[in-house]
């Protein structure tokens, strides 16, 4: 977020705060994700739990398949899946440590 010269001085602290929150690492770790809906909102034919590694930075949740990370070499990159939580629909599954995205 640019806080250039045309920004009102009164708004600069607010814009700086929003910018710092958008780049903050809130949480990262491994968890199980239920493949319930695809990116178009349709149900998966084969609903299954998938072991994932995730990072929540700002409002963006980045997910990596744990099996793909394990199979990749130390110099290989694994492309993540991105979910913008500001645009997402999240349903908590009422079991400890389970989240349906």
TrEMBL record:
<dbReference type="InterPro" id="IPR011993">
    <property type="entry name" value="PH-like_dom_sf"/>
</dbReference>
<protein>
    <submittedName>
        <fullName>Uncharacterized protein</fullName>
    </submittedName>
</protein>
């Amino acid at each position: 977020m640019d806080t250039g010269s045309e920004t009102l001085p009164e708004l600069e602290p607010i814009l700086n705060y929003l910018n710092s929150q958008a780049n903050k690492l809130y949480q990262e770790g491994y968890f199980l994700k239920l493949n319930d809906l695809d990116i178009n909102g349709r149900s998966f034919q084969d609903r299954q739990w998938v072991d994932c590694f995730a990072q929540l930075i700002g409002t963006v949740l980045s997910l990596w398949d744990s099996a793909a990370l394990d199979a990749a070499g130390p110099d290989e990159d694994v492309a993540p899946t991105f979910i913008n939580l500001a645009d997402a629909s999240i349903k908590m599954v009422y079991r400890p440590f389970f989240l349906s995205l």
